[in-house]
């Protein structure tokens, strides 16, 4: 099979997607693994297999559908695990991962999740994605207070390059930000971890209290806070990829790799938006190349194991926030436009956007789910009222 050449800016979009994904949540993964009682070498092995799992699954799904389908670990799920796994053995944690993966596979095979995603109006899906991305947009400028030179330089370089060579604007911000961080001695010391960390097999242990108390909430959080926004991002970008095969594939991959530390392989939303934007490629039919490049970078990051994750964590938080916000600026604007362009659905989309952006969490389920629920309720009531008036 002959593949068309991949432009440099498309390759860079894939690199930025992986960089943002690792840098924004690697520390949370580390905390979750530590909560399960794992030592540093075992945690580094988790990072190795997570990178390899995300790389292989991204390449598999992207090449299969010729669409920018990125996979990712579940950051909300990791946050839940980091607060829930204290006192749980590594074997019991692995049992939780397998249990949640089985439930995801069942959702994929039954078609239940696909039916829900078909039922959700396009405007609400775009509004939910915009609500998720809003935090990243707001954090773009937060670092100006404490890291004015670094963040200011990134913003100025982005603006100038955006005017002259738009596709390389984020690349310019990355280079300037790294230079400012290094020259300003703003990079913290990283622990001494070997570049490649071999994964360690952990035999699963199934405990009913942990499966019900942690496994079920973990499954719900992964589906509502990671997979649902990921599918919504694909839908908002105009890619009609069958949902059930995506759920089944990611669930099966997680199921196979869970004993090696792969707690979740899900459909990406935030990082996928980088590869689904016009900056990745002006032709929507070729943006899958950015996702394919991200898959290769995932594999390289996996081979580098915990070393890359810790090195990324050594960068200033303001650098990551500014870079992520700039990379997602177009995706945020596009989502807002799609959410609000239909006047009859604008009120419902606004409610979905605001609830999602609020960060509301009830019963362990994140605001992305409640944004869809609240927006869906408004959509149903207002649509019925509109039909009666006609």
From TrEMBL:
One of its GO terms (molecular function) is benzoate transmembrane transporter activity. The keyword DNA repair does not apply. Keywords: Membrane, Transmembrane, Transmembrane helix. Pfam families: BenE. It comes from the Bacteria. The chain crosses the membrane at residues 12-31, 43-63, 95-117, 124-144, 164-183, 195-220, 252-275, 296-329, 349-382. One of its GO terms (cellular component) is plasma membrane. This is Benzoate/H(+) symporter BenE family transporter. It comes from Tenebrionibacter intestinalis.
């Amino acid at each position: 099979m002959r593949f068309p050449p991949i432009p440099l800016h498309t390759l860079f979009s894939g690199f930025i997607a992986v960089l943002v994904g690792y840098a924004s949540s690697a520390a949370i993964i580390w905390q979750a693994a530590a909560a399960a009682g794992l030592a540093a070498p075992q945690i580094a092995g988790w990072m190795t297999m997570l990178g390899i799992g995300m790389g292989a699954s991204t390449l598999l799904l992207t090449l299969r559908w010729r669409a920018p389908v990125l996979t990712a670990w579940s950051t909300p799920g990791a946050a839940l695990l980091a607060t829930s796994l204290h006192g749980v053995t590594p074997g019991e944690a692995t049992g939780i991962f397998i249990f949640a993966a089985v439930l995801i596979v069942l959702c994929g095979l039954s078609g239940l999740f696909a039916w829900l995603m078909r039922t959700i109006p396009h405007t609400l899906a775009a509004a939910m994605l915009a609500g998720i991305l809003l935090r990243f947009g707001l954090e773009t400028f937060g670092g100006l207070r404490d890291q004015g030179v670094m963040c200011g330089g990134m913003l100025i370089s982005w603006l100038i390059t955006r005017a002259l060579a738009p596709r390389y604007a984020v690349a310019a911000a990355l280079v300037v930000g790294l230079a400012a961080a290094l020259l300003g001695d703003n990079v913290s010391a990283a622990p001494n971890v070997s570049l490649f960390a071999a994964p360690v097999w952990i035999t699963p242990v199934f405990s009913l209290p942990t499966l019900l108390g942690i496994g079920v909430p973990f499954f719900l959080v992964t589906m509502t806070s990671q997979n649902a926004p990921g599918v919504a991002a694909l839908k908002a970008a105009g890619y009609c990829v069958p949902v059930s095969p995506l759920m089944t594939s990611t669930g099966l991959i997680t199921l196979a790799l869970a004993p090696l530390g792969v707690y979740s392989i899900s459909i990406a939303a935030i990082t996928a938006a980088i590869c689904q934007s016009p900056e990745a490629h002006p032709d929507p039919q070729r943006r899958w190349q950015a996702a394919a490049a991200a898959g290769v970078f995932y594999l390289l990051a996996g081979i580098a194991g915990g070393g890359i994750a810790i090195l990324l964590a050594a960068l200033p938080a303001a650098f990551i926030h500014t870079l992520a916000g700039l990379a997602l600026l177009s995706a945020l604007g596009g989502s807002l436009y799609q959410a609000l362009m239909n006047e009859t659905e604008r009120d419902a989309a606004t409610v979905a956007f605001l609830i999602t952006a609020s960060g509301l969490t009830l019963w362990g389920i994140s605001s992305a789910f409640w944004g869809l629920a609240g927006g869906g309720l408004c959509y149903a009531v207002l649509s019925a009222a509109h039909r009666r008036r006609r």
